[in-house]
Specification:
Helices cover about 10% and strands about 50% of the residues. It is mainly β and about 140 residues long. The longest helix has 9 residues, at about 55-65. The relative contact order is 0.22.
Length: about 140
């Protein structure tokens, strides 16, 4: 399993992340997206309205380069930031509906397969914020 129990718990408690993709000309795009952790595959699955028609979907089709981050501020006093960053390969899962109505899900999704995971602040609440060390690792 590529995610630690703390990372899985954190991801399960969040609803919004940001997906970065790269266009064919190298232009970067970052989009706020809803997501779910796919425990069976160990992936992050991203769905959206008319996903198969979106720029992020076409970018992933073109080159598969993705980064995904989920973060929040657990406390402001003391300052506590939590995050999971995933760098990996995006896979386009085709739509299940040929021609959805405007504003409807078409069944397509972007599946993020982690290659590197960086997490921070998910445990060790008793350690001073400036002493926390990110958990960074390559996964396969």
């Amino acid at each position: 399993m590529s995610f630690t129990p703390e990372e899985r718990d954190y991801l399960a408690g969040q609803q919004l992340g940001r997906l970065a993709t790269s266009a064919p000309d190298g232009t970067l795009q970052v989009s706020p997206v809803g997501f779910s952790y796919n425990a069976e595959l160990g992936t992050i699955d991203i769905v959206g309205y008319q996903m198969s028609r979106s720029k992020k979907y076409r970018n992933v089709q073109d080159n598969g380069r993705v980064a995904f981050v989920v973060d929040d501020i657990a406390s402001t006093d003391p300052w506590r930031v939590r995050c999971v960053e995933i760098r990996g390969v995006g896979e386009c899962v085709p739509p299940t509906t040929e021609d959805p109505s405007p504003g409807q899900l078409d069944g397509a999704l972007i599946r993020v397969r982690p290659r590197r995971i960086i997490s921070f602040g998910l445990d060790n609440a008793d350690i001073a914020p400036h002493e926390l060390v990110p958990d960074s690792r390559d996964v396969g």
